[in-house]
From TrEMBL:
Pfam families: E1-E2_ATPase (PF00122)
SUPFAM superfamilies the record matches: Calcium ATPase, transduction domain A
Entry keywords, A to Z: Magnesium
InterPro entries cross-referenced by the UniProt entry: ATPase_P-typ_transduc_dom_A_sf, ATPase_P-type_domA
Region (Disordered): 1-20
Organism from which the protein derives: Forsythia ovata
Protein name, per record: Calcium-transporting ATPase 12
Residue stretches making up the P-type ATPase A domain: 108-205
Length: 335
């Protein structure tokens, strides 16, 4: 018979009653679509069918005190089954590229194999136990495990209703355990278990289609200007070669001492070869220097700075076109 004191200690160490971290092998008894519907609809019925939060913990083979196993095999298996915490679209608005780049560089605190550690946002997997505090953004859809006075602002996901002037705060506890990716923690702290990541999150479904469909004025003008600069680039590059060769063989190109670099019948073939290679290298350098991607990246860099400023000022923007206008206004004011 076991010592009651040892049982008491075990319960204190593991309040959910999960005695040990389960193996990272084998298939999961729930699919990602059902887990996605759980948080999307805040569906207590599905939660009850899966055995509540405790049942989800068991199904996802995790532990609120120890976290997931976290071995390479375990992480690979979870990503293969439930997907990873990245966003892929066939056609993505270039603004989303900037937002995504900023997003994936965020660090989140997780519990893996009994150790608290910081990982990149994109490395999060289903089953991870994540620690949240005031000012954090919920990194994925999930369920509340434990905490104190945890309140979320979901207006950046759902937007404000017409009759609302201020964001509505959502209190999260055992009676309302649903957390949506993208919501901001405005008060309290707590831990959550990740149930959906990446394209299966509510944040992706609510914003992804808008971002992928909407074509804005700045985007169309940038594409037009980029195409125009490409044409100029190729015209300059390819016209440089025949003009330079013509000047060289006509004897109009001179060295630093003022001597003609090419004299018919006198200049050796080797020197002519060297000079032609130099002309081709110069043409290549011009082509590289006129690369239009640097122009696009210059715009993206300034827009990224503006987005970070808007985020710091807690500006809520519902549409990409509005975000572009706000960023352009900020860039003008900061110059």
């Amino acid at each position: 018979m076991e010592n009651p004191a040892s049982l008491k200690n075990t319960r204190n160490e593991n309040p959910r009653g999960i005695m040990e971290l389960q193996s990272d092998s084998g298939s999961f008894s729930v699919d990602k679509a059902r887990l996605a519907a759980l948080v999307k609809n805040k569906n207590h019925e599905i939660l009850g069918e899966l055995g509540g939060v405790e049942g989800i913990i068991s199904i996802l083979r995790t532990n609120p005190v120890v976290g997931i196993h976290g071995s390479p095999q375990d992480l690979h298996h979870r990503r293969k089954t439930f997907g990873d915490n990245t966003f892929r679209r066939a056609r993505v608005h270039w603004f989303v590229d900037i937002l995504k780049a900023i997003e994936v560089c965020r660090l989140v605190i997780v519990l893996r194999n009994g150790l608290m550690q910081q990982i990149l946002y994109k490395k999060l997997v289903v089953g991870d136990v994540v620690y949240l505090k005031k000012g954090d953004k919920v990194p994925a859809d999930g369920l509340f495990l434990d905490g104190h006075s945890l309140e979320l602002d979901e207006s950046k996901i759902t937007g404000l209703k017409e009759e609302q002037t201020l964001p509505k705060m959502e209190k999260v506890d055992n009676s309302n355990p649903f957390l949506s990716a993208g919501a901001e923690v405005v008060d309290g702290h707590g831990t959550m278990i990740v149930t959906s990541v990446g394209r299966n999150t509510m944040c992706y479904r609510s914003k992804g289609e808008i971002y992928s469909r909407e074509s804005t004025l700045l985007e169309s003008k940038t594409k037009y200007l980029e195409a125009y600069l490409k044409k100029i680039k190729w015209v300059v590059s390819f016209s440089y070669l025949p003009i330079s060769l013509g000047r060289y063989f006509s004897g109009n190109v001179r060295d630093d001492n003022g001597n003609r670099m090419f004299i018919y019948g006198e200049t050796s073939v080797l020197y002519v070869s060297y000079d032609i290679v130099e002309i081709i290298l110069a043409m290549t350098a011009i082509s590289i220097a006129m690369d239009t991607s640097s122009f696009t990246w210059a715009i993206k860099f300034n827009i990224a700075r503006a987005i970070n400023k808007l985020k710091a000022d807690n500006v809520i923007v519902k549409k990409i076109s509005s975000l572009e206008k706000a960023c352009i206004r900020y860039c003008r004011n900061s110059d």
